[in-house]
Write a structure and sequence with these properties.
Layout lengths: L9 H7 L1 H14 L7 E5 L5 H8 L3 E6 L2 H11 L4 E4 L12 E7 L7 H14 E12 L8 H15 L2 H12 L2 H7 L3 E9 L4 E8 L3
Parallel strand pairs: 1-2, 1-4, 2-3, 4-5
Antiparallel strand pairs: 5-7, 6-7
Amino acid sequence: MNRDPYQNFANKYDKYVEPFNSVVRQIAMSMFPPQKGMVVLDVGCGTGTNLSLYQRAGCKVFGIDLSLSMLEVARIKLSTRANLIQGDASEMPYPNNFFNIIIAFLTLHEMPGYIRAEVMDEMTRILKHDGRILLVDYHPGPIRFPKGWWYKTVILTFEILAGREHFINYRDFLGKHGIPGLIDSQKLNVEKKKIISKGNLALFLINLKQD
C-alpha cells in the first residue's frame, strides 16, 4: 500500500478515535502491567498512545508503523526517548529474543490476509523466550443482542469510512476467525483472554510454547 491512508486524518485521530479506545487500552494494560525496564514494541503504533503509557512506567519503547503521518504525531507525543520507525511488520529490523512484550492493538485486521501470519512469525522471532504478546482486535462473536449489535454498527461505520481496502481486510480478518484463527496457526499459548464490547472485541495475552 503506497498511499498513506491516514495522511488526512492523523492529526484528528486522537480526538475522534481515542475516546472509543481508552477503556479497551486500560483493560489491555491490566492483563500484563508495565514494569520499569521492560523493552516494549507496539506493532502498528499509530499516534503512540500505547507507548506513552509504557514510557511513563519507565519502559524502553519501540514502535513500527507504515504511516508516516501517524508516526509524526507519535514523535511529538513521545519525544526522542522512543525508537520509532516506518516499516513493514512482516520484515522487522529487530534482533531475535529482544522484547519483553509486543503489542498489536487494533492492527491485525488492517493487514491483508497473506501478511498476518508473517507478522505473527516476526513477533514470535523477536520476542524473548519468557516474553508476552498482547493482541487486541475485533472478534467474530457471537455478538450479544441488543447492545452488541449497536457496537457492531459503530465499528462497521468506522471500517467503511476507512476505505475499501481497509474494509476488505477487516472482513477477511473476521472471516478467518480473528485472533483465535491466528493463534491456532502458530506455536502459541493463550495465557489470558477477555471478550468485551458484547462480543465485538477480544484481548489475548500470549506466550511461546516451550518444547
